[in-house]
Write a structure and sequence with these properties.
Blueprint lengths: L4 E4 L3 H12 L4 E5 L6 H5 L6 E4 L7 E2 L7 H6 L2 H10 L4 E3 L4 E4 L4 H13 L3 E4 L6 E4 L2 E4 L2 E3 L1 E4 L14 H8 L4 E7 L3 E2 L5 H4 L5 E8 L2 E9 L3 E3 L1 H7 L8 E4 L4 H11 L5 H6 L4 H11 L10 H12 L1 E3 L3 E2 L7 E6 L17 E3 L7 E2 L4 H16 L1
Parallel strand pairs: 1-2, 1-11, 2-7, 11-21
Antiparallel strand pairs: 3-6, 4-22, 5-6, 8-9, 9-10, 12-20, 13-16, 13-19, 14-15, 14-17, 15-16, 17-18
Helix pairs in contact: 1-5, 1-13, 9-12
Bound molecules: dihydroflavine-adenine dinucleotide.
Dihydroflavine-adenine dinucleotide binds next to helix 1, strand 2, helix 2 and helix 13.
Amino acid sequence: MDYDVIILGAGGAGLMAAATAGQAGARVLLIDHAEKAGKKILISGGGRCNFTNLGIEPGCYLSENLHFAKSALSRYTQWDFIDLVQRHGIAWHEKTLGQLFCDGSARQIVAMLEAECAKGGVETRLGVSATAVRHRDGRFEVAGAAAPRLIVATGGPSIPKMGATGRAYEIARQFGLEVVEPRPALVPFTLPESDRLFTTIAGVAVPSVARVNGVSFEEATLFTHRGLSGPAILQVSSYWRAGDAVRLNVLPGALERLKAARAKSPRAGLKAALAEHLPARLAEALAARVGLATEMGNASDAELARAAAVLEGLEFVPDGTEGYAKAEVTAGGVSTAELSSKTMEAKAVPGLHFIGEAVDVTGWLGGYNFQWAWASGVAAGQAV
Ligand code: FDA
């Protein structure tokens, strides 16, 4: 059978592109080496899929070209996806910070996308690996099929044990396209021996403001056996490069709080004063780091100001991240300079498109990455 387009990868981006192209009348073959489609959707959002965010805007994405994502995101918005979800009768709710989740299960999102593909007559082949790709006479040949267009939607290498690969980069390089060095993003940090103090309080979470390279996020930080995690940390990890310091404010308004504690309980130590606001084990670790040896009542304004500065600007220099094994996404990828922002087609290779996480566009935590998958999928699907 002849196809108009072959799509490699039946994740969020590939399914969306397939449904869009199929419903527009194209003969679509969708290939994935996994035994089922949308595996990352199924595990996302704790099984409830944080499928988009009410606050989608281009500023919530990282890329070497911060303008690239604008076109696709503005032509297929969060409201378009919400409309699709509602048409399929899937109940949803906003959890926090504009993040939308299914009330039921992420399985509903995969079923919805599969139904949309079926409506477009998409042929899906699972358990088929996209090994060699050949291009001759204006046609792309892969896995025994051929078509004048190929959409690469194989994602990035995050979570390899789920079948994630860097196949998209290999295909890009095969066609001479530049790939922005991929790196794990939305990923926990590991801390060096010198910060072991904090790894002894594994499991403690605290509201915080985390800052890296001038970018900050106000969400929870979680101390782990190996370092730091939690939403605030995952967010700043995408902006982090080896050697950068991470600054954590775990007690906003620290000086006023310490002065109030001094007035209220002058005989108490710093540990007790901090335990009024923070989990006890964290209060103990922080008091040790601040090193204020005296009772609160004996502490001078200058000593409290020094303590407050430490608490509002805890500095960690991670010795690394937990890597692709734990990274929610991969930053970097096929360079946007190579692609049309309208169709996601390679400027130098007519008919070859890259979409989703494979491309150098990475969203914040909170539904931004799926919205990019949907929007870039629609952009490519409309173009075929
Ligand atoms: P995706 O990785 O989903 O799909 C690629 C597909 O290609 C896979 O089906 C894979 O099997 C296939 N493939 C790979 N190599 C192949 C080859 N050589 N041959 C054939 N097939 C191949 N985002 C968000 O917005 N909200 C959320 O709640 C979450 N939650 C979340 C939780 C966890 C644990 C992870 C790991 C990630 C998230 N994400 C997320 C991120 C989100 O899952 C991710 O950004 C999208 O799935 C990317 O969609 P793609 O379709 O581009 O790639």
